Amino acid sequence: MATITDEALDQLRAKVGKPRLTREEPTLEEASKDAIRQWARAIGDRDPRWTDEDYASQTPAGGIIAPPSMIYGFSLQAIGDRSGLPGVHSFFGGAEHEWYLPIRRNDRIDVSVKLLDVAIRHGEFAGRSVKQTSEVLFTNQNGELVAKSMPWGIRTERGMGSKGSKHKDLSPAEYTNDDIERIAQLYAEEPSKIRGSVPRYWDDVAVGDSLGELIRGPWTATKVASSRVVYESDLISGTGVS
Fold first, then answer.
1. Is the bond leading into 19 cis (omega within 30 degrees of zero)?
2. Model confidence at 204, in pLDDT bands (50, 70, 90)?
3. Cα separation of 181 and 134, whole Å?
4. What is the pLDDT of residue 119?
5. What share of the chain is helix, strand, coil (3-state, %, to 5)?
6. How far apart are CA 129 and CA 9, in angstroms?
7. Which of the four pLDDT bands, split at 50, 70 and 90, describes residue 24?
8. Cα distance between residue 73 and residue 129, in whole Å
9. Is the Cβ–Cβ distance between 113 and 19 less than 8 Å?
C-alpha cells in the first residue's frame, strides 16, 4: 500500500510557486449557449440569466452568461494541483473564489495552476494527511482575468480514512415510494417559486424567515456531477478510484 514518504513530500514541495498553464483535453472548450444551458441543467439551477436571452438582455451583464461554477468544466486542474505522492488517495477539500468578470456566451477560458502550499496534518479521520493548496487563475480569450480560485485537496493513505472515526458506521439513506412522490411534487412546484426579476428587499426580510425548501435528490444530474469531480480528482493524482 502506498504511503506518504518524506522523499515524495520533498518532490512535491519542489513544485511550490511554479505556475503552469494546463493543456489536457478539457470537458468544455468554450461557453457556448448549449454548453451553458446543459451546465445549468446539470447543477439544477433554473436562473433565467443562463438561458433566457430576453431576460438576460435586461440584466447588468446585458446578455446570457454562465453559472460561475462552470469554471470547473474548462480543466481538470480547476480543482487545483493534486499531483505528486503517487498511489496516495486524493479528494477535493474546498475552495475560495474571487470573481472579476462574468463568463460570457462563447468565452474561451484558459486555466493556470500554481501549487502554493504543502502542509502536513494530523487528525482523527486518517491519521497523518497532506493538505495541498493551489492558486488557479481563469482568463478569457482576451487575456482578462475572470476569476481566481484557492482550492485545497486532502491526500490520505488508502485504507486509513475513518479508522476509529465516529462516522465509519454511516448507512445510505433509504427512500419509500411516498418519499419519491413528495420529492417529485416539490420539483414540479419549484418553477412557481422562482422570483426572477422580482427583488427581495432588505426591509422585507427578518431574521429567521424561511427562503423556501430547496430539493436536490435523491439522485440527480447534480449528484452525477459531484461524483465526476471526485473521480477526476483521483485521475489527476494518478491513483484511480478506490
1. no
2. confident
3. 43
4. 86
5. 30, 20, 50
6. 11
7. low
8. 28
9. yes
